Amino acid sequence: CESCQQPLPGDCPVVYAERAGYSRQWHPGCFVCCRCTEPLVDLIYFWKSGAAWCGRHYCESLRPRCAGCDEIIFSDDYQQVEGLAWHHKHFACLECETLLTGKPFTLANTSLLCSTC
């Protein structure tokens, strides 16, 4: 098994990942996302940099995810602060929903607050 390095008995089901090449094999429970360890046996997987990725983490490796709505940001126009990203419409105060672009704000645990709130 590529993951646990334990033998794969002949009567044991194995996972072949076409994109990894048929020389690689995994126990079904060992074929997991390289970022979150979500089992990938029954899911669509992505192969990147020599590893299997779940859809969520593969997309995050290509584009940022909005801290406000948890969706992938496809536009090149977004707000980024301290490693987090927001669609412009979600870069707003958690309490009063005032848009914060160009205004003073506080960031606390991914929550944005305007100077009033």
Automatic annotation (TrEMBL):
<dbReference type="GO" id="GO:0046872">
    <property type="term" value="F:metal ion binding"/>
</dbReference>
<dbReference type="InterPro" id="IPR001781">
    <property type="entry name" value="Znf_LIM"/>
</dbReference>
<dbReference type="Pfam" id="PF00412">
    <property type="entry name" value="LIM"/>
</dbReference>
<keyword id="KW-0677">Repeat</keyword>
<keyword id="KW-0862">Zinc</keyword>
<feature type="domain" description="LIM zinc-binding">
    <location>
        <begin position="65"/>
        <end position="117"/>
    </location>
</feature>
<dbReference type="GO" id="GO:0005634">
    <property type="term" value="C:nucleus"/>
</dbReference>
<keyword id="KW-0479">Metal-binding</keyword>
<keyword id="KW-0440">LIM domain</keyword>
<feature type="domain" description="LIM zinc-binding">
    <location>
        <begin position="1"/>
        <end position="64"/>
    </location>
</feature>
<dbReference type="InterPro" id="IPR047120">
    <property type="entry name" value="Pk/Esn/Tes"/>
</dbReference>
<protein>
    <submittedName>
        <fullName>LMCD1 protein</fullName>
    </submittedName>
</protein>
<dbReference type="GO" id="GO:0003714">
    <property type="term" value="F:transcription corepressor activity"/>
</dbReference>
